[in-house]
Design brief:
It is a single chain. The protein is an alpha+beta fold. The protein has one domain. It is built from three helices and seven strands; from the N terminus they run H-E-H-E-E-E-E-E-E-H. The protein has helices at residues 2-18, 34-39, 112-127, and strands at 22-25, 42-50, 60-64, 71-74, 78-83, 88-96, 99-107. The strands form two sheets. The chain has a five-stranded antiparallel beta sheet with strand order 3-2-5-6-7. A two-stranded antiparallel sheet has the order 1-4. The longest helix has 17 residues, at 2-18. It is globular. The two termini are 23 Å apart.
Length: 128
């Protein structure tokens, strides 16, 4: 009986997570000029996992997001974004439509602490 309860509990949690509300995410440079968007490298991802054996942008595993338009992401998800003009990687939590909370930031060649911090956050969220 306990195994059945565990299976049902896990299935219920997965269903609830899949129904999590979506919010609008916009890259910091989403409304910048086309000149800026073409001149500097930009990218953003919804972070699903982090490879802590990597020390650069390849550590971030997740779905790519558009830079120049709105994106729908699950509420409270973590988003990593990069703008080459500032040469910084930033991680945000998508709180509500167009609102995000800064979790941390790092220069592109100094991401190890940020990668570890996000890995810990993801692990804590998974444990809930």
């Amino acid at each position: 009986m306990t195994q059945i309860h565990e299976v049902l509990k896990k299935a219920t949690e997965e269903e609830i997570n899949s129904r999590r509300a979506e919010v609008i995410y916009r890259h910091n440079c989403w409304d910048y000029s086309k000149y800026h968007l073409r001149k500097y490298k930009h990218w953003a991802k919804v972070v699903h996992a982090v490879d802590t054996s990597r020390t650069n942008g390849y550590a971030w595993q997740g779905s790519w997001l558009r830079i120049d338009s709105d994106n729908l992401v699950p509420q409270d998800s973590l988003v990593v974004e990069f703008c080459g003009d500032e040469n910084r990687v930033r991680v945000y939590r998508a709180i509500a439509d167009g609102q995000k909370e800064l979790i941390g930031q790092a220069k592109t060649n100094q991401q190890v602490e940020l990668i570890r911090k996000v890995a810990d956050l993801l692990q804590k969220e998974e444990a809930k």
